[in-house]
Amino acid sequence: MTSLSLSKRFLLIFGMILISFNFRPAIASVPPLLELIKTDLNLSYFIASLLTTIPTLSMGIFALLAVPFSRFFGREKAIFYAVFLIGIATLSRLWGSNLFLLLGTTIVLGMGIAIAQTLLPSFVKTYFPNRAASVTGIYATSLTLGAAVAAGFSVPLLTFFGDWTFSLAFWSIFAIIALLVWFPLTLQKRSETPPTASISSVFPKTTWSHTWVWAISLFLALVTLLFYSVLSWLSPLYMSLGWSANDAGLLLTVFLLTQLLGTASISALADSNIDRRPWIFFSLVLSAVGLFAITMFPLLAPYLWVSILGIGLGGIFPLSMTLPIDYSSDEKTAEKLTSIVLFFGYSLAAIGPSGMGLIRDIFGDYYLAFLSLFFINILALIFTFKFKPGISIDLPD
């Protein structure tokens, strides 16, 4: 760990927590209201699924902008501007009864999340290189907490405001808070003149042929697809089984809260060993058990199986995000590797929610959709054995 005063360390971690808190509320607030939005705007399940598919896809596509933005503005300023985009897009959902505007906000949301989320691992590499898993776990915990709060309070906010557009737009308040705390970090002077940065100059052709870049990208795609698919369709699944919107939203909240347990505990334990594979394997076994039970016995102890699933997916997320940090030779490589991994990972993962919506439209229920997630989980489990420690990736400009 670099030498930092206690106050500086607190500011860095607190700012990181508030920034990452903004990465999921605008997405997680949608599923509990999805049936209402679908009915109000007369949407098919496939079109409704785009409300979570598009931001996930955007988080992948726009991840490549993160490094050029960081090189030009400086990393801390780039994160600041990205969170500003998240806040503006979320607030714009006040006019979400216009479908095209609602879908448009999801693109801008994805852009902001992509840039800020991609740059945080480099931030960790710079300031906390010897505690990568545990510090990544801190911001992943905050990220998950933001999702849990949004999922849990979307329906109560709907009741309070009487309009789902106000419920969705409410979460812009957290962007304002994060920007106020993060602003002092943007005042740091840069030691170099901002270069003219472009995607082609930052990512030369040799970057795209690196075997480990593809391996980490595919793995992140699999585990991210699992999370966003469950996030999008867990509540609708149980509403289709006769549950009320409040009860289904509560179940989703339990899923997200138990993710906090998995994120905080497993990421902290993973720093005790340079080999992440035992903890990755353990997390994916838990999520496989949860998915299998929800698919086969959805009404038999649903809170138990959803909790097991939440702990598993909660544990795997920070570990998958730690891989680019572990395998990078320096902070610039960490920035670039994370950018590429998120580009491919989220772009591929975006097919999950829409794919499940399409399966639901074709077959009329969620059985095959959730069964497919179980087999994807098994594939990720097999993939785990590839990630041996001691690998160093160098991605020069």
Q: Per DSSP, what share of the residues sits in E-state strands of 2 or more residues?
A: under 5%
Radius of gyration: 20 Å
The residue-averaged pLDDT reads 83
- Tally the helices: what do you get? 18
CATH-derived architecture: Up-down Bundle
Helical content band: over 70%
- Number of domains as seen in the coordinates: 1
Shape: globular
Question: Main beta sheet: strand number and arrangement?
Answer: none
Tell me the structural class. Answer: mainly alpha
Number of strands: 0
CATH topology: Growth Hormone, Chain: A
Q: What are the segments in which pLDDT stays under 50 over at least 5 consecutive residues?
A: none
Look at the structure and name the CATH superfamily.
MFS general substrate transporter like domains
First-to-last CA distance: 26 Å
Query: What is the helix/strand order?
Result: HHHHHHHHHHHHHHHHHH
CATH class: Mainly Alpha
